[in-house]
Amino acid sequence: MKRKIIHVDMDAFFASIEQHDNPEYKGKPVIVGGLSGRGVVSTCSYEARKYGIHSAMPMYMAKKLCPHGIFLSVRRKRYEEVSAQIFDILYNITSMVEPVSIDEAYLDVTDIDKNPEIIALEIKNKVKETTGLTISVGISYNKFLAKLASDWNKPDGLMAITENMVPDILKPLPVSKVHGIGEKSAERLKSMGINTIEDLLKLSQENLIEIFGKVGVEIYNRIRGIDERPVETMREIKSIGKEKTLEKDTKDKRILLHYAKLFSDIISEELTKERFYARTVTVKIKTSDFAVHTKSKTLDKYMRLSEDIYEVAKEIIENWKIEQYVRLIGLSVSNLSPIKYEQLSFLDKNVVKAIKAENVAIEINKKVGRKIVKKASELLKEDTMQRRD
Ligand SMILES: [Mg+2]
Fold this sequence. Notes:
The chain has 389 residues and is of the alpha+beta class. Helix content is 39%, strand content 20%. It has 15 helices and 12 strands.
């Protein structure tokens, strides 16, 4: 049986809240983000988009494009408050909710004996009534298509993609619309003369594997309307991290090590709080040309102490031949486990399961998406809060 999946996404979330809370900003270009010298745009209103401003753009560039715009810093607490109201509405419909971000989620409504378009309208009305804001809703039979549908006629959109519309409706879309094809891959495809999904459909699965590696299979299926990814209601913490855009681009490793030390402390605290141990340490740098590079190291043992994490980070940074100036440094840990590896071997598998379940339960108790999805991005400061449309 085909599933019924709904994807919901608030429209220009942060900027819309600011316009709602400050009616004098309505109809004006509002830009929310890091206001310090090197901050970036988190969200901007649709009026601001007309000037070419978009999320993740450096703030100074946005100011150049729209000098008379209303520039505001991020009021995270307020946005989380509104987010909680929205997730309450979603959880009232079903417990099959997968939070994706502060303002975005998937719902599996297969088991609800109601037309999904009616459910979608209920969500839209309720969100409007409760928060005064608009939400875009997409309906389809898998996650990829539902997300595509919610993006179809933003803002305040409502769109359903049914089986008989696929693949025709997808054909004219640019390849960047396919989940799994990032900016870089899209550029590469473009240089090969592949611009639309229609072009992509002409390639064999082998071709796609050559281009994308393993993901090629998923991409091959996705553009044919096949995406079996379930709506994951309980998401375990996958990684914990912290990053910082530097005041000034640097090649000085001492500065990078200084931040690695600082982040190790924060990550260690977070691991303790969440009762996790980690086995993999990843250092991320963004160079002055905005290219992102990461290097990871996975150990045999699990760690939680700041010194242990720093030790690995230090090794990575010291051995890294960094050619360009660095503009952002980040550190994260992943491969998380609720118990130490040494203990693990002594325990029965069921016990391990129980401990894992307990951790999941703690997460659920925190209830709303912003808590459940405690990924690296969660712990970041305003200047790295990006791409919240
Ligand atoms: Mg959004």
